[in-house]
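>> Question from a student workshop board

For tomorrow's exercise we were told to take the sequence and the ligand below, predict the bound structure, and bring the output to class. My setup keeps failing. Could a helper post the expected result so I can at least see what it should look like? The ligand is ISJ.
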Amino acid sequence: MTDKKSVRRQIDITDEQLLTLINQRLQLAQTIGEIKNREDLATLDPKREQEVLDRLKRFNTGPLTEEGLRNIFREIISAARQVQRPLSVAFLGPEATFTHLAAIKKFGRSTFFKPLPTISEVFMAVEKSNHHLGVIPIENSTEGVVNETLDQFVETKLQICGEIYLEISHDLISRSGQINDIEIIYTHPHAHGQCRKWLQGHLPQIPVLEVSSTGLAAQKAAHNPNSAAIASGFAASLYELRVVESRIEDHRENATHFFIIGPYAPGATGADKTSIIFAVADTPGALYNMLRPLAERGINMTRIVSRPMKTVAWRYLFFVDLDGHLQESALQECLHEMEEMSAFFKILGSFPKAEAIEKVS
Ligand SMILES: C=C(O[C@@H]1C=C(C(=O)O)C=C[C@H]1O)C(=O)O
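>> Workshop helper replied:
Here is what the output should look like for this input. Compare the format with yours to find the bug.
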């Protein structure tokens, strides 16, 4: 017969063992940190982190889910980086935006995060080495590409060193959590657009005031007890707000793609992507010819986006993501061939592919 008290005693003993083991792991990370200092290497090693997670996934017998494993080890690895040299990550703020949440999902809560008001300021801060890395949105599955991010990539010396996909889901949140207290709703125009049907069905008379981010909307709702915000559940917990109704978006399939930018490119993991920008001559078949080397070598293109070249009217830059790493010879040869044909060519970096779409909760 197992009674609650004795099982809880076993849980306490297990926790003590876990804590001892976590501290042991952090001490080992400190030793790695000293070696990295001697060899002048960066603390963050995305390739190694991926190997650690892949290995553990193979070991896991359950009942811990794959997502649970990722969540737990994200925080352990975050603490292991922190005892070496604190990692500083700038992101498109303010706090409690989806970019903030994406950054936490990637780097864990032991990281130092700095919200900055614009995408160009995130680029600038990392270029000036004020922060090790930056996190910026590149594309939303319903709203499309973020042009400001594309434009920054044309000029920057930084590389793309990682990517994050985050599920986007909106909650209606307020101080009391009571729907009857709401006289005004704050939110970002995209979130407004994504929740229109729900609002028409449930709160048709309540005015919606659009603000520059869902984080700011949550901040406003925290100041006014007769208002609510459409923002993430994460924003609710950060500003101590209550959820009036969760997941009020009209379509569930909504995700945002973020890039991590930094001064260096991670090594190959075996599951990587490479991003490039190019412009082609204004001649028939130019784009077709440019993409042919990819087709011939069976290299998969995961995204192609065009953007007007600001210096010449009606000419375009193409932003392309490919499967593979620059250290792979087939991709190297292919990019070399493409560069020869292009009017402008820039490699933005090779980075490990995101494994999964991160959940908001
Ligand atoms: C401990 C290290 O430093 C960091 C932390 C890691 C970890 O906790 O497993 C892995 C890679 C690095 O980002 C290491 O490089 O091994």
